[in-house]
From TrEMBL:
GO BP terms: D-glucose import; dehydroascorbic acid transport
Transmembrane as UniProt keyword: yes
Record localization: Membrane
Keywords: Membrane, Transmembrane, Transmembrane helix
This protein's GO CC annotations: plasma membrane
Predominant subcellular localization, coarse grouping: membrane
SUPFAM superfamilies, alphabetized: MFS general substrate transporter (SSF103473)
Start and end residues of each Major facilitator superfamily (MFS) profile domain: 1-191
Gene Ontology MF term list: D-glucose transmembrane transporter activity
Protein name as it appears in the record: GTR5 protein
Membrane topology: Multi-pass membrane protein
Pfam family, one: Sugar_tr
Species: Chionis minor (Black-faced sheathbill)
Transmembrane segments: 6-24, 113-136, 143-165, 171-190
């Protein structure tokens, strides 16, 4: 019944994909990244109702004033910064631990290929983290979430199809592995 369990994550992603357009952008993102005060206030009103949220807005304005001269670093600049090495090592440790997640077993591959698939899983996660961190400021979280869930749903449909056909066509097993990698990248970029 592992295919039902795998489909469950696709169902949850589909539900979130359907409801995501009805939620506003994050107020801190609108104010701090986009500089949109009116959009920030509108999003706060939509999230919190007619209550008094001016204290939170003032706190965000103070944070904007404090970070005004701060430069947003790109991925290479972050990798050169020694102060973030503990956080980077923690992230890499988590990514490398994905080798033990068991995704390589879903494709029904030969045992000799599974270590390479596990390595591919970790590389896929690393690619998604680097790619997401470099584009999140440009597109915002909402677009990345929406696109990520949409891609995940599509990839899960293709993965289920390739798994069903893998007994008839041996090359479909390799398509399943590629789809697993793509699913992980879509998950890392979106959710």
């Amino acid at each position: 019944m592992w295919n039902v369990l795998l489909s469950f994550s696709g169902l949850v992603a589909l539900i979130q994909l359907l409801f995501l357009p009805f939620f506003p952008e994050s107020p801190p993102y609108l104010l701090l990244q986009k500089g949109d005060k009116a959009g920030c206030l509108k999003a706060m009103k939509q999230l919190w109702g007619e209550g008094n949220y001016h204290t939170e807005f003032e706190d965000m304005m103070k944070e904007k004033a404090v970070t005004k001269g701060t430069k947003i670093m790109n991925v290479l600049e972050v990798l050169k910064e020694r102060s973030v090495y503990p956080q980077l090592s923690t992230m890499l440790l988590l990514l490398l631990s994905l080798q033990l997640c068991g995704l390589s077993a879903t494709a029904n591959l030969q045992e000799s290929i599974i270590p390479y698939v596990s390595l591919g899983v970790a590389v896929s996660e690393l690619i998604s983290v680097i790619f997401c961190s470099s584009i999140i400021d440009r597109f915002g979280r909402r677009i990345l979430l929406w696109g990520g869930y949409l891609l995940m749903a599509l990839i899960l449909v293709l993965l289920e199809t390739s798994l069903l056909l893998s007994d008839q066509f041996l090359w479909m097993r390799y398509c399943s592995v590629i789809l697993i990698f793509l699913f992980l990248i879509a998950y890392g970029i979106g959710p």
